[in-house]
């Protein structure tokens, strides 16, 4: 039943759309049809995934398949690095199971595997056929061409750098709007390798955590497309006149050649991504130390996250969070934006069940489930500089706006979830 709490989330929808329209490169070209279609698509997806038993079961199996890719990757990592890969058999007494999730051993290696698989599938022409199939579906629904449609779908499960790898040969020919959309959608979603970690963190405080995390990444893709199109409107004329032969741009001599070259490309991306992450996180920590020099203010030291928490409290309320929980929720949004969503999920997982409203925890799961943060700006610059170096300067000029679009896309998703009956999620 629709209530005042549900109506509150309408404020979040309006705020997100207005914010993106305010920074649009062409405010006169607001995509009204896409806005209505994307929002309806999000609502229908959530209703179907949680309300239709066969789809709910299918969602579970997709999650298992994604986990299978991550675990298969871990087999290779464990062979090279042994117990450092986070295998169950540790040579010491384990007091903190969460410490086994090491970004360098659990996330970065997936990029290598995806790079190799993408090259092999490209050599077998399977990706070309899939691209054409996706083109038919997405052209009729959200106006996307085949290549960016495929990358968008891959990004939902593979991640912000891995998704575009599937259409690497197409990247130079994408329009500005399409390239911006890929970056924005990448920041609006998360990867399959991290979904499992988030679900593990939240399982003790959020019923059906895995379904919420997986649904959040799927449903945020249409939101990312919508907000990207608002900020950088589509130029259909440019897209229609482009001609490009992907097979001519990327050829492999054999399947083994494809695997080797794909792995080599992936290694370069992994090194760039890892190094950039270290620098960005270190800079935020350095800034917090500087802010903490004056000592405690209001009973706690000044930090970037604390300041952003105050700033984002109204946004948290607009999404649908009760006002009593808004400061806490706003702080989580600030942590997600400055430090990474992984840190934000850990902080939310540490909040006792009775400390915040169940509705707040569900909405924040969707609002936090995306890669939009300062570190991801560096990740995208590093990744796309390797994937499409000739467009690096263009990407530098749009990546911060893409982060904003990705951040607000998850907020839009949370608002859409807030509009739906709480009983749909077993909380009514």
Q: What's the main sheet like?
A: 2 strands, antiparallel
Order of helices and strands: HHHHHHHHHHHHHHEEHHHHHH
Could you say which overall geometry the principal axes of the C-alpha atoms support?
A: globular
Number of helices: 20
Distance between the termini: 9 Å
Mean pLDDT: 81
Q: Provide the low-confidence segments as ranges.
A: none
- Helicity, in percent? over 70%
Q: β content, as a range? A: under 5%
Rounded to an integer in angstroms, the radius of gyration calculated over CA atoms is: 21 Å
- Based on secondary structure, the structural category is mainly alpha
DSSP E strands, number: 2
Number of domains: 1
Query: Which strand order spans the largest sheet, edge to edge or round the barrel?
Result: 1-2
How is the topology of this model organized?
Layout: H1 4-22, H2 32-51, H3 53-81, H4 103-106, H5 108-123, H6 126-141, H7 146-158, H8 162-165, H9 176-188, H10 192-202, H11 209-231, H12 236-241, H13 246-249, H14 255-291, E1 296-297, E2 300-301, H15 304-319, H16 326-338, H17 341-349, H18 358-368, H19 374-387, H20 392-419
Antiparallel strand pairs: 1-2
Helix pairs in contact: 1-11, 1-15, 1-20, 2-3, 2-11, 3-10, 3-11, 5-14, 6-7, 7-9, 7-11, 9-11, 9-20, 10-11, 10-17, 11-18, 11-20, 14-19, 15-16, 15-20, 16-17, 16-18, 18-20, 19-20
